[in-house]
Amino acid sequence: MSLKDELHLGADTLGLTLTAAQELLLVHYVELLDKWNKVYNLTAVRETERMVAYHVLDSLAALGSIRGSHILDVGSGGGMPGIPFAVCRPDWQLTLLDANHKKTTFLKQAVIELGLANADVVCERVEAFAPERRFDVITSRAFSELAEFVRLTRHLLADGGEWAALKGVYPDEEIAHLPEDVKVLDVIELKVPGLDADRHLVRLGLA
């Protein structure tokens, strides 16, 4: 099965309707990730065909549960979930933040090559990041434990905003260690086509 067919089938399974142009952009993103990964070590997944499920569909499984349009992707790394979000929701504004210069070099190139006018890349430590406007949603994928994620990004959350962390197994222990003023809004089990692993989206807000 081609990357495009795998992506199309996976998106259909998730209930997402992508345009042909969006599908081509996501395939190109996987090809860029594969190419740059050989030098920059962006992901432990080495097989191109596995990147579709492990990175693109894994990100897109959370797309319908994101409540906001001005979004920060913390520790974006190879661009997950920020780049798939930006491709599929051109009406959203994404900021991809990472402190690693090699990773942000890749992200900047990917944003240029994919023509993502709605995505900005920032190379900065999250605790030092001071944008003019705070964010509706702060998301991350494999960035840190929930309490640390909240601690490092609290100053970046807009009033009424929320955190949306992509996690593997249900994070009981991490939830138990959240600060008292942080409430769990929802923990959504995600089913990722082509991926036989537990996935959850944890939505958090200030109490």
UniProtKB/TrEMBL annotation:
Tell me where it resides.
Cytoplasm
Keyword Nucleotide-binding appears in the UniProt entry: no
Q: Which residues of the sequence carry a binding annotation for S-adenosyl-L-methionine?
A: 75, 80, 126-127, 141
Per its record, the protein catalyses: guanosine(527) in 16S rRNA + S-adenosyl-L-methionine = N(7)-methylguanosine(527) in 16S rRNA + S-adenosyl-L-homocysteine
Extract one GO molecular function annotation from the record. Answer: rRNA (guanine-N7-)-methyltransferase activity
Task: State the superkingdom.
Answer: Bacteria
Family that this chain belongs to: Belongs to the methyltransferase superfamily. RNA methyltransferase RsmG family.
- PANTHER family per the UniProt record, alphabetical: S-ADENOSYL-L-METHIONINE-DEPENDENT METHYLTRANSFERASES SUPERFAMILY PROTEIN (PTHR31760:SF0)
The protein depicted here goes by the name: Ribosomal RNA small subunit methyltransferase G
Q: What gene does the UniProt entry assign to this protein?
A: rsmG
